[in-house]
Amino acid sequence: MCGAALATAPALAGQQTRVLLVAGLGGTPEYRKEFHDLVQRLDSALVNRLRVDAANVTLLEENPVSASDHAEQRSTRDNVMSALAALAASAGPSDDILVVLLGHGTAEGDDVRFNLPGPDLTPADLATALDAFKTQHVAVVNAASASGGFVAPLAAPNRVVVAATRTSRERSATVFPRYFVDALAGDGADLDKDGRVSILEAFQYARQETERHYKDENLLQVEHAVLDDNGDGEGSMVAAADSADGKLASEFRLGIPGDAAVGATPTTDDPVLKRLYAERTEIQKKIDDLRARKESMPPEEYQEQLENLLVELGLKNREIRQHGGGG
Amino acid sequence: MTRGRVVNARRRPAAAPGGVRERRMPPMAFLFVLASMALHATAIFAQTPGEALDRARAALRSGAYDDAIREYRSIVRSRSATPEARRGLVEALLTVGRYDEAEAAAQPVTDGDPTSSNTLGEVLWARGRLDEAEAAFRRAVASQAGDRLIAEANLAELLFQRGQIDEAMQRFDRFIDYYNNAPQQLTAAQLVAVGRAVRRLGRTNPDLFQDALRAFDEAAARDPGWPEPHLLTGELFLEKYDSPEAKKELEKVLSSNPRNPRALVDMARALDFDGVPGARERVDSALTVNPRSVAALVESARLHLAREGTDEARVDARKALEVNPSSLTALSVLAAADFIAGDTQAFRATRSRALALNPRYAQLDATVSEVAVQVRRYADAVDRAEVAVALDSAAWNAWGILGMNEFRLGNIAKARAHLEKAFAGDPYNPWFKNSLDLLDSFKNFETVPTEHFRLFLRKDEADLLAPYVSALAEEAYDSLSARYGMDPSLPVRVEMYPSHADFSVRTLGETGLGALGVSFGSVLVLDSPAAREKGEYNWASTLWHELSHAFHLAITGNRVPRWFSEGLAVHEQRRARPGWGTPPTIAFVEALRDGRLKKVSELDDGFMRPDYPQQVIFSYYEASLVFELIENRWGFTAIRSMLDGYRDGRSTEELFTSVLGTSLDRFDDDFDDWMKQRFAGPLKGLAPIADAPPRSAGIPALERFVRAHPGDFLGQLRLGALLVGAKRYDDAQPHLTEALRMFPDYGGQDSPYWWLAQVHEAKGDSSRALAALARLNALSESNYDALIEEASLEERLGRSKDAEATLSKVMQVDPYEIDVHQHLASLAAALEDYGTAVRERQAVVALKPTDRAQALYQLAVAQREAGDVVAARHTVVQALEIAPNYSDALELLLKLRTGGSGSGSTPDDAAGSGHAPRDPRASGVDGGAHT
Q: What confidence score (pLDDT) does residue B740 get?
């Protein structure tokens, strides 16, 4: 079970999602193209599919192709740091900040880096820049090789850190990023069917598909993605909302705005709909409570109660739709 | 100790090192011996009797036995005769088999002379005159002769051999004190005596085997040219399953004396242990030196027996017994030959003879048990091993054989108990250890019952495989049961291992088995598809094959020859589905062409003693053709009658004569003619050509070659394939067609059909492409790509039902692709084949897709369409448990609760349809894993 909270909290007024996408140094034409394709696909998915405001997405690449100002959109260390500073300056206090690094990483002893044209990006650089986000939810996804070395330095309260590798010693080129992008660009990662994709769901999807990739290709798995969101700097390979790591990531959702999401409670002035939404929220809470008590109940009793509550929920949804409501 | 572990056990930790125990030799003594070695060696050298003795000893140790005998005789006849010279002479005479002369040479020079008693005892012992030998040893022990300690060890060994184990063990135990009291003063011969004694004590304290090695090492260091310590060390390593170390020791002996009969026999045992050629040659070499060597004759008999040559084994065993009528090893191998030949009376007589010599002798029954396993008579093996452990509760090998064969018969709890006991007594045995490790992993398996089977599958793939395996197994059972008119013992247990190493351990107790499946009768063991690369294995075909064996073994009481059962099982595969079973290959036709196939009368050798590794595979196919011919000419009744004949103990020769009306020799000739006729086309197309182009040859070179040799199959095929690669489809087609005409049954990965399918498809002729692929898949059981391509073309041509059938075949090759299951599910649903749709949706769920909620929802939809509303409700609730806001799933639940209408119902109305049943497997007959 995914364990995501069923009763979704309403979005805070004015809350926005702001994104920095960085494609690092390719090294070879093949990787340059791969990183370019991935970052472009992710950009498109965020804007067109997950409804992130295009003005809130900053994209830096090794060789920007369509930029009006080529130099400013190049993924150099200075540009990355500047982009993060600009993001911090413009972000509202409750905004969600997503930073995604796609490319190669290197590690020599404790010296871990994300490879960029010119000077590389170090965990310390990134940690310094992220310190500017005092109140926002921040999610950093480093999908590069050796990215495990970024987890501990970046770990902080209110921050999700995803790395494609468990440690900095996993230095082979990663396949995790392609599945992470798939998660946000396709249908498969919305595991709880609420119409949105959380960072936790994207991580679970990409981790599982990465594992399947190595199995299908009959290769020894050389990358093991981890997620840390409890601030302890210890990434978890198996993350879930009710595990050590995963709760914050489950609440960091991308997609349809909160009040339009499946099962969410939209704002309305209609008193009937208000009542129906409240009743639905009550059923959702009962389901949450029941699921939390599953292990302590006889299976038949649990099954019966769950089914009855789900029927109630389904009927309530019908009622809401009959009154012109949604969610 | 100076050595590493004695054995290479696979996973279970080796026995804990013994540490210094009261009744073990302390390590410090060993260090002291090493430190004092140089001084002591000098002292020994100073006492040598003279150049003649040196020459005699050198001749004996180098294998110049005639010279040694001459030199020793000369010394013995002289005034400077010493006990050592006499012992040397006796040893040389015994080594070459001149037993009477040895006995004469060992007689005391004067009445009451104690110096020859031990030597005489050794000669008498070698001739099986145990009472006289014992008396001689006792005289030597009572005397103050220099070899008193060796006589003590001999006496204890003899008592042990006669079943007087308590007294023997007491005497062996004294040797620890002999060593501990004055290790530095012991001669090499005395250290060997210590090692022999300690080795026997290892029977109840396995740590002492390490001490025995130490004593032998010290003896070798003290007398570097003496072969005895190296031979004993090699034998101990061999006894403890470490053939590489054993070979190292034996090589030390053979490098200085390639004619040492004992080293040759031991090396033969090591080679046979490793399953590599050369054992027979070593035994023959030993028999050249001593045609009456008991050890060599026994080993020769054992090798014959391993090849089911019971008559030859009996001849050799009897020759050994002529030399030493008390040889328990010779009696054991003779008893095993009698038993396997079905000569119950002779077996009983031989066994009684051995037990008269040693009433507690367990190794005869243990040997019979081992040989019974070789001929697949597992129940007999259990019976004999039970008798063995009843005779001697410390016969650890017998406990192990008992455990391994209870395992093969599917008696898991008994197997574990016996193997635990065996391993406790012999912690060096890798087979026991591996089997116990595997048994430990059984907690990760579960048993799925069907009408006639118990499917034992690893939990993480049981949900996926069970529906397919159960359906196929029951179909095979119904088919074979009807055909053979007799059932194996039910239920049949089918174990499938996703790790090939585990499959191998389950079968042999060790890794490295190349087979895909094994039948122990009503226990079938095979690889699950996860154990093999995609495209190289069809589990369904293998299961059919192994189940066929179960019928053959049941009908014959496990007395069917290997070639017969294997050939018939492949024949059954081919009858079950086109393309199943071992196919004809280019290499097979080349072997037929070159006369490298076995005659039918020698086909068992093709399986048991192949001349080259590929011959085993060729023999499967060849043997299957024997049954194709027999069934076509004489009908299945003849085959069935032959199986009955084997049950009654009749030989293959008799059965060919009585059932088929032809002698086996004549059948050999007829079959050879039939084969050459059947494969006339491929034989002609694969005729050797001196100037065949190299592998790197390009199109122009191959075109020139084919113009010169238009009848060459490989030339036409290679050229056709290269032209397809170059997209010259029109040019390729005639070459591929010609290749096909020559060898139409060739279904390999590079079959002309495969290339022709590419040609037709490139030219837009989907129908002909499909026909080529369909033909290819009727010749091959596991061509994944060709199956997928065939299904794709069938769909494209609107033949959805055929596509559904083809995709179902894919699941026998690789059931792990989610996309293929989803596609087949959709196809089946569109065809209103809801049963298949449900099965495929279940497979998707079993494969643990990332989006599990969606997979469960789709399964619920399929279950609803199949009319199984209760299961659909259960499943959709599972989906909603993961994703409660999944609107499609909520709607489906409402529909299911209201019989499909959904709208307008109240929660109370909707709640009235009862509960979904629990998973039926939760209450299965064998529910849960065996542990």
A: 97
